[in-house]
């Protein structure tokens, strides 16, 4: 699968009956801002739209995009 924003292909990793599709992207933000976007539900909503994360092994991530990701010029 190709990432529509970068045009790069993802990596498909298969381990037994589990498959992971991974994309790598460099973001123009400090690491603490990116970490908050992943771990803080309010920040995650600003970056990705409505999300629900079941943070456990085998948990699901549901994301409902309601627009493009956070603009480059916005801060955290």
Automatic annotation (TrEMBL):
<dbReference type="Pfam" id="PF08327">
    <property type="entry name" value="AHSA1"/>
</dbReference>
<dbReference type="InterPro" id="IPR013538">
    <property type="entry name" value="ASHA1/2-like_C"/>
</dbReference>
<comment type="similarity">
    <text>Belongs to the AHA1 family.</text>
</comment>
<protein>
    <recommendedName>
        <fullName>Activator of Hsp90 ATPase homologue 1/2-like C-terminal domain-containing protein</fullName>
    </recommendedName>
</protein>
<feature type="domain" description="Activator of Hsp90 ATPase homologue 1/2-like C-terminal">
    <location>
        <begin position="29"/>
        <end position="65"/>
    </location>
</feature>
<dbReference type="InterPro" id="IPR023393">
    <property type="entry name" value="START-like_dom_sf"/>
</dbReference>
């Amino acid at each position: 699968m190709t990432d529509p924003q970068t045009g790069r292909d993802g990596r498909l990793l298969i381990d037994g009956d589990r498959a992971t599709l991974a994309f790598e992207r460099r973001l123009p933000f400090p690491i603490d801002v990116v970490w908050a976007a992943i771990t803080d539900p309010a920040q995650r909503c600003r970056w990705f739209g409505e999300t629900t994360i079941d943070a456990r092994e085998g948990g699901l991530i549901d994301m409902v995009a309601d627009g493009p990701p956070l603009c480059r010029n916005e801060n955290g």
